[in-house]
Design brief:
- The structure is a single chain.
- By secondary structure, the protein is mainly beta.
- About 0% of the residues lie in helices and about 55% in strands.
- The chain is built from one helix and 16 strands.
- The strands form three sheets. A six-stranded antiparallel β-sheet has the order 1-6-2-3-4-5, with no helix packed on it.
- Strand 2 and strand 3 form a beta hairpin.
- The chain is flat.
- It starts with a strand and ends with a strand.
- The mean pLDDT is about 85.
Length: about 190
């Protein structure tokens, strides 16, 4: 628990660091080369307190104070209005977390999902999801004979409301494995 120094070469989606009097999480980033040998790292950042999203460019090698969280295992229990309730595995205490604090993680929350709740200086900052989750396809267009030739995909609405692209052979009612970091379809659930 505490912090350590990181620079732009350490960036990854989900990295949290101190910047402009706040704690920010990287939602997306891209190393961008400009003319005359210059380069920047373009980022999309989410403020972990407010949930607001900003875009910013950093110089390569720019240094930041990385935020290291204390993590505790928990299980998603249920929704209470628009808040999400988790049970701490060690104490069996119930913890309520807002949608703003959870950010994109709400797209992957299913009953009894095992997560790590992240704390910083005694405050809940968010959760760490497993690398993948199994979600049910609640709506997708039927496939047609010959669709498989294109090798493309089709949009599918999943049980949490997130829409992802799935192969054309996936049907409504099937369960699929989704990567929680990229939001991409991995495979049909076995």
């Amino acid at each position: 628990m505490g912090s350590q120094i990181a620079d732009t070469s350490d960036f990854y989606v989900g990295l949290k660091f101190k910047w402009q009097d706040g704690i920010w999480e990287i939602v997306d980033y891209d190393h961008h080369k400009m003319g005359r040998g210059g380069a920047v790292v373009r980022t999309k950042l989410r403020n972990v307190d407010s949930g607001s999203i900003v875009e910013n460019s950093f110089r390569p090698g720019e240094k930041f104070e990385r935020v290291i969280y204390e993590e505790r295992p928990a299980q998603f229990s249920y929704m209470d209005g628009s808040d999400y309730v988790f049970m701490d595995h060690a104490t069996y205490d119930q913890m309520t977390i807002t949608k703003e604090t959870l950010g994109n993680a709400v797209n992957y929350l299913v009953d009894d999902l095992e997560v790590m709740i992240e704390f910083y200086e005694g405050r809940i900052m968010g959760i760490e999801l497993p690398k993948s989750v199994i979600l049910k396809v609640t709506d997708t267009s039927p496939s047609f004979k010959g669709d498989t030739v294109t090798g493309g995909g089709k949009p599918a609405t999943l049980s949490t409301g997130i829409v992802v692209t799935v192969p054309v052979f996936v049907e409504t009612g099937e369960k699929v494995v989704i990567d929680t970091r990229s939001g991409l379809y991995l495979e049909r659930a076995k």
